[in-house]
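Sample entry was shown:

___
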Amino acid sequence: MDPVMGSALRAEALSPQTTSRPLRAWQQAALAQYEEQSPKDYLVTATPGAGKTTFALTLAARLLSRREVARVVVVAPTDHLRLQWAEAADAMGIVLDPNLTNAVGPVRAGTQGYVTTYAQVAGKPMLHAARATAVKSLVILDEVHHAGDGLSWGEAVEEAYGMSARRLCLTGTPFRTKPDERIPFVRYEEDLFEGEAGGLVSRADFTYGYKEALADNVVRPVVFAAYTGTSRWRNSAGEVVAASLSEAGTKSVEMQAWRTALDPKGQWVPHVIAAMDDRITHLREEGGMPDAAGLILASDQDDARAYAKIVRRVTGKAAELILSDDPKASKKIERFATGSARIAVCVRMISEGVDVPRAAVLAWMTSYRTPLFFAQAVGRVVRSRSPHESATVFLPAVRPLLSLAASMEEQRNHVMPPPKSQPDEELEALDLPPREPKEGEMKQWEALEADARFAHVLHSGTAHTGEGTGATVVVGEEDEEFLGIPGLLTPAQTAELLSKRDDELRQRIAASHRADVDDFMMVEDHPDEDDTGRSWRDAAELRREINRLVNRVAARTSQPQAVVHTQLRQSVPGPPSASASVDVLRARRERLRTML
């Protein structure tokens, strides 16, 4: 568990505004069910962003007011989430101490409970048991799957809270546990598949899944854009091997091709980052999200630093680099969540408890591929703020990730599989080889190069390539503005649009390379020549300037930004800014200046 993973602000645990909003339908239904049953244990599984914290604290407030409990204890995954829970509770009139350590015995006077962590509970379970049984207590186990992170944590949680009056377990995603690591206070049942024993299944008392949240506009619709490409690497025998990400054949070859694609020295990463930046620009300028941002997930800190440099080189803007060993990491996450930076690069730090509502684009450049981590990470970009927002996830076109993407909208039970005689193939991460061989050893594996190209959009388990559609698929300029909103673009149209944008992006990059060569050849003969706009990076800067001017015009005229964009395109005809030429962008910039 990354120690800084939960340092940013959690949507449902932020401010007093939480209490001013009416409860969502699922929260009301869960509260009604709870009060009807009055259970000792209750497990809620709700998709990320649904409002689990609001539900839990509303329930706690009701139980306290009716004197059914006299104390509330919250157990969170990380130390950084303690303050967030305490602030949310304070906004609802519940005083929880976020600083109570194991060195302090009783709960401090003047409080109605405290917030602790699973690690602290494991340190002194009997102390926490005494606190939870001194008076009738409601124990809230946030992201309860962490109680299965190890036998010691699970045993400690059971020892500490086995005798408490009430226990509320929360989780944002389905989770799996090992057969010998049952999570305390979770009900398991035998799962019979076609008459044969198929392990154990845990049953949530209330489930609010992605499909329901999407229907309620609680989360954004997600477009999974898969990128393939050819990878070349040198194997342990010194042979050079080449394979496509999407047509690798064997699992072993696919894994090697995936590793190579993620290597910062190749072209797969820069190309996908450029596509990601293009999508962010589109959302900011014409998608109704002027503060849209993107997240890049890296496998390790070395890759994260390299990816951040690529972001700067490709976009002309610095990325927010968030590393766990950086003492300022927590502040960086908060700064990114509330600021205007376009892209953040991190390592396993965008998971449960981290909330960046303006993040709507995710680039999957990590080797992690468990269902739990996938759902958590995708959950960071689906939190909806308005009905017309959408999210885009760029990912390698490899079977493990495509399978997870295809199953995201399915309602899944918590499964605890039986013991296996074979090693579990669902490893959390690829076994990446050492970057450098030890002294005296031969290099065992080496990534050489990788390119990238758009492969397909995944929709309901079907790949839509956008190719071969002929005249049956027509994507106009106005259609582009509604990318990802269900019912307005078909999957084939979405694929056609992304394929078209990828082609345009490839042309701009090629033009940029040609311009760079021309600049180098002409620099001595024309040292004072104005070459502004020669590269697509300059076009990106023009688009950002246009976006800022549109915001100013909208504020001055009291018109929506979308209306100003429409007027601008009428005054200066041409394609949307995301694909317009430098000349068109310059003309639009000058037009906006005359409007101020």
About this structure: The first helix runs from residue 17 to 20. The CA atoms of residues 97 and 114 lie 4 Å apart.
